[in-house]
Amino acid sequence: DKDIPARVTLMQLPSRNEIRVRNLFNVVDCKLHWQKNGDYLCVKVDRTPKGTQ
Q1: Percent helix / strand / coil, the chain, rounded to 5
Q2: 3-state class of 5 per DSSP?
Q3: CA distance 27 to 23
Q4: CB burial string 37-52: b at 16+ within 10 A, e below
Q5: What domain count does the chain have?
Q6: Does the first or last residue of the chain, that is N or C, have fewer Cβ atoms within 10 Å of its Cβ?
Q7: Distance between CA 49 and CA 44 in Å, rounded?
Q8: Translation initiation factor beta propellor-like domain: which residues (predicted)?
Q9: Which among 15, 10, 12 is positioned nearest to 42, based on CA atoms?
Q10: pLDDT tens by residue, the chain, 53 residues
Q11: Which contacts qualify for 20-28: CB closer than 8 Å, 24 or more apart?
């Protein structure tokens, strides 16, 4: 059960077309931040430290 990845998907709306999909392992938290003009999206992913389970 620990090997189930977190899935981050960037979608185009209203068509719900998947633009980009990433499967990430050992994710603790994921935050999304839009640039002020809305041109760029930042995805910040916090992971568990290596060697920690």
Answers
A1: 0, 55, 45
A2: coil
A3: 10
A4: eeeeeeeeeeeeeeee
A5: 1
A6: N
A7: 15
A8: 22-50
A9: 10
A10: 567 888 989 899 999 999 999 999 888 998 999 999 989 989 999 988 876 65
A11: none
Residues 7 and 18: their CA atoms lie apart, in Å, by: 12
**17: in domain:** yes
In-domain check, residue 40? yes
Give the count of alpha carbons within 13 A of 7, CB side only: 6
Q: Which domain holds residue 32?
A: 6-47
Q: What per-residue confidence (pLDDT) applies to 14?
A: 94
Domain presence at residue 53:
no
Using a cut of 0.70, tell me whether the model's pTM lies above it: no
Cα–Cα distance measured from residue 36 to residue 26, given in angstroms and rounded to the nearest whole number: 30
